[in-house]
């Protein structure tokens, strides 16, 4: 097997010089590659030498300086109740399973950001649609992507991707079957398991599709974090990049999106995300904060498949203002530790209840 680094990245090193930040606008199959995971030296990775920020095209850089509208308080969506409002579903049925790690992740991040929490039965699609430019929007839930058969460009209903539940055909794929890639990728919200039931009632209310996201008001949103599976995936179109979930959040106005290239593991994602926000709070640029968090996960002996899935797309600047003051949602260290100690028991109780 030929190593990728000599073919893909080595020819660029002379142009990059001593720069650490590298903006990449990938095309074709390179859209599926997190460059930070490429090996470097005997035991290292490009992660050690470079911070990567991804763009859908080079012209995206021109939008970095555009005036921003006023933002509202950050929102953290986590641990939705996928059975909310539904009759009992047999345990052997296809379903979105609860993710215990998202409760722990959500409690930590909502305290750090002093954010509005949406969880359980309150983590609904309708609540997301009512948001008005939260400064940071963090979504910790199931993501899904329905692939298409290359020869027909039609959805391959035998390959429904939902977290680690395997590739199964089912009613969800039947209902979301479409040649439009924006109808084949989305996020599971409260009540999402209605999609596995024979009844069509409320079936559309539990899933937020990529096709619906451009209608959200994210004009003042600095950062969207899609802490879910396959959120950077979509249809790859030559010279246009990936048409999918992450792109639609940018179209809706978000300045930066952090998304995953493949199915992610619950424990590793919780560790990565808590570290990522800590580095953001310290004033690191967004792409640098992600790289630092990934390096920490790698140093804990997690493999590249676990630490390398997430990429930072769009604007890469810091969430610290030029006058040195941290953007409002980040609490002071003293208040943060006080609040997290007070709510630690709530987080543990929420995890036990899942």
Structure description:
The structure is a single chain. The protein is α/β, with parallel strands linked by helices. A six-stranded mixed sheet has the order 6-5-7-12-15-16, with helices on both faces. The protein is built from ten helices and 16 strands. About 9% of the residues have low confidence. The protein has one domain: 3-Layer(aba) Sandwich (Rossmann fold), CATH 3.40.50. It starts with a helix and ends with a helix. The relative contact order is 0.15.
Task: Indicate the topology.
Elements: H1 4-8, H2 13-16, E1 21-24, E2 39-40, E3 44-45, E4 51-54, E5 75-80, H3 100-113, E6 116-120, H4 125-130, E7 136-140, E8 143-149, E9 154-162, H5 171-176, E10 185-188, E11 207-209, E12 223-227, E13 234-237, E14 241-244, H6 245-251, E15 256-260, H7 266-281, H8 286-299, H9 304-307, E16 310-314, H10 333-353
Parallel strand pairs: 1-4, 5-6, 5-7, 7-12, 12-15
Antiparallel strand pairs: 2-3, 8-9, 8-10, 10-11, 13-14, 15-16
Helix pairs in contact: 3-7, 3-10, 7-8
Which features would summarize this protein structure in a list?
354 residues, alpha/beta, Rossmann fold, six-stranded mixed β-sheet, four-stranded antiparallel β-sheet, 16 strands, globular
């Amino acid at each position: 097997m030929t190593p990728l680094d000599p073919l893909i990245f080595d020819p660029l090193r002379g142009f990059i010089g001593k720069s650490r930040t590298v903006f990449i606008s990938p095309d074709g199959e390179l859209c599926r590659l997190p460059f930070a995971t490429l090996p470097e030296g005997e035991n290292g990775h490009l992660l050690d030498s470079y911070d990567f920020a991804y763009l859908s095209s080079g012209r995206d850089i021109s939008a970095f300086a555009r005036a921003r509208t006023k933002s509202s308080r950050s929102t953290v969506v986590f641990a939705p109740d996928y059975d909310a409002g539904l009759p009992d579903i047999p345990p052997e049925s296809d379903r979105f399973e609860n993710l215990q790690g998202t409760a722990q992740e959500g409690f930590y991040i909502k305290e750090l950001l002093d954010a509005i929490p949406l969880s359980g039965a309150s983590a609904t699609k309708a609540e997301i649609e009512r948001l008005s430019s939260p400064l940071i929007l963090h979504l910790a839930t199931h993501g899904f992507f329905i692939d298409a058969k290359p020869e027909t460009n039609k959805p391959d209903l035998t390959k429904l991707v939902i977290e680690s539940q395997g590739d199964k055909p089912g009613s969800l794929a039947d209902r979301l079957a479409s040649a439009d890639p924006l109808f084949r990728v989305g996020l599971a919200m409260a009540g999402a398991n209605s999609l596995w039931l024979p009844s069509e009632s409320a079936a559309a209310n539990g899933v937020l599709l990529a096709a619906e996201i451009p209608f959200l008001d994210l004009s003042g949103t600095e950062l969207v974090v899609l802490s879910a599976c396959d959120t950077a995936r979509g249809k790859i179109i030559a010279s246009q990049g990936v048409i999918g979930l992450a792109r639609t959040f940018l179209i809706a106005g978000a300045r930066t999106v952090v998304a995953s290239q493949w199915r992610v593991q619950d424990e590793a994602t919780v560790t990565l995300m808590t570290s990522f926000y800590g580095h953001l709070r310290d004033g690191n640029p967004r792409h640098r904060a992600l790289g630092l968090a990934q390096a920490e996960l790698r140093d804990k002996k997690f493999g590249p498949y676990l630490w390398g899935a997430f990429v930072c797309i769009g604007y890469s600047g810091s969430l610290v203002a030029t006058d040195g003051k941290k953007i409002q949602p980040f609490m002071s260290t003293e208040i943060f530790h006080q609040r997290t100690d007070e709510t630690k028991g709530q987080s543990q109780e929420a995890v036990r209840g899942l």
